[in-house]
Amino acid sequence: MKVSEKPWFVYLVRAANGSLYCGISDDPVRRFAKHQTGRGARFFASSPAVALVYVESWPDKGEALRQERLIKKLRKSAKECLVQSQAGDFFPSPQPSPAGRGS
């Protein structure tokens, strides 16, 4: 029996043009940072990555790959439903700093 593996994640990233990119990673935050710098996926060559909008956890890479394939087959409207189902849960929007702080 295998020792518990590190979980893998399926994630959606919104590009500047509104399209959604689906991928997998064992560290979606680090992977998103790579996408933002233009490394990691040719998908973002024409429209930069602007937000990590959806993340789900799977127990291993194989299951994450299966889920990624299923999500990639969905219509954009269904992917948007996934995004809305998690809106604000994973990465809350940054809050504006109170007036006078940091000035």
Automatic annotation (TrEMBL):
Superkingdom classification of source: Bacteria
Domain GIY-YIG per the UniProt entry, residue ranges: 6-81
InterPro entries: GIY-YIG_endonuc (IPR000305), GIY-YIG_endonuc_sf (IPR035901), UPF0213_domain (IPR050190)
Coiled-coil features, chain-numbered ranges: none
Annotated family: Belongs to the UPF0213 family.
Record's protein name: GIY-YIG domain-containing protein
Native source species: Pseudomonas fragi
Taxonomic path: Bacteria, Pseudomonadati, Pseudomonadota, Gammaproteobacteria, Pseudomonadales
